[in-house]
């Protein structure tokens, strides 16, 4: 995804945060991912002041997925 995203917490276990450098809202990102058959989760409910984030940050979980499924999910997210 190149410079369109920034991975936050890549050593955090079974999930990562993805800051998406876009004009889309968090809700729009989640809906667009779902249209590409990928479920991502909001993080705004965990922030005290969402306005302090320049770009939306979504949660990607990958526990219980095979390496192939993770790769496929990344390809789908890139399309989204």
From TrEMBL:
SUPFAM superfamilies (UniProt xref): PLP-dependent transferases
Protein origin, superkingdom: Bacteria
Protein name: Uncharacterized protein
Organism: Salinibacillus aidingensis
């Amino acid at each position: 995804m190149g410079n369109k995203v920034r991975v936050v917490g890549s050593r955090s276990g079974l999930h990562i945060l993805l800051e998406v450098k876009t004009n889309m809202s968090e809700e729009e990102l989640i809906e667009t991912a779902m249209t590409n058959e990928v479920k991502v989760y909001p993080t705004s409910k965990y922030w005290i002041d969402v306005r302090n984030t320049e770009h939306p940050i979504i949660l990607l979980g990958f526990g219980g997925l095979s390496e192939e499924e993770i790769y496929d999910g990344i390809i789908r997210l890139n399309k989204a």
